[in-house]
Design brief:
This protein has six helices and two strands. By secondary structure, it is an all-alpha fold. It folds into two domains: 65 residues, Multidrug-efflux Transporter Regulator, Chain: A, Domain 2 (Orthogonal Bundle), CATH 1.10.1660.10; 55 residues. A two-stranded antiparallel ribbon has the order 1-2. The longest helix has 30 residues. The protein is elongated. It starts with a helix and ends in a 14-residue tail after the last helix.
Length: 137
């Protein structure tokens, strides 16, 4: 399948396909003329790359996983733990914002819960860094 067909079928721009090839994530076959040709399973490989990126892996990490016959399960578990922690931070942030929207205080800065949310954010707890405070409840 040539690069234009791959781009059309997958929605991945040709420039991205060339970049992935340059990084070693994709391999083109001998082309006819100047057009790059890809194996029929290129869409599956692109889906794996997209999944890895959605999970927060760098392209280098995705490439390493695609090259290895044995998947680094510890790396997958560590990334899953990071995602779980990020979900918890985002849930705390959402809960704090909902409280601020419904808070009876005239000024958000006068609300103790909102002040705690600001302190946690300033301490980095809502950006994934360790904080001295507790989660917003």
């Amino acid at each position: 399948m040539d690069i234009a067909d791959v781009a059309k079928r997958t929605g991945v721009p040709a420039s991205t396909l060339r970049y992935y090839e340059k990084k070693g994530l994709l391999e083109s076959l001998a082309g006819r003329g100047q057009r790059r040709q890809f194996a029929a399973d290129v869409a599956d490989r692109l889906a794996l790359i997209a999944l890895g990126q959605a999970a927060g892996f760098s392209l280098d990490e995705v490439g390493a996983m695609l090259m290895d016959q044995q998947v680094d399960r510890q790396m997958l578990i560590a990334k899953a733990d990071e995602i779980d922690a990020q979900v918890k931070r985002l849930q705390a942030l959402g809960k704090g914002l909902r409280h601020a929207a419904q808070c009876p205080e005239e000024n958000h800065l006068a609300c103790p819960k909102f002040q705690r949310l600001m302190k946690l954010s300033a301490a980095g707890a809502l950006r994934g860094k360790r904080a001295r405070g507790k989660a917003v409840s």
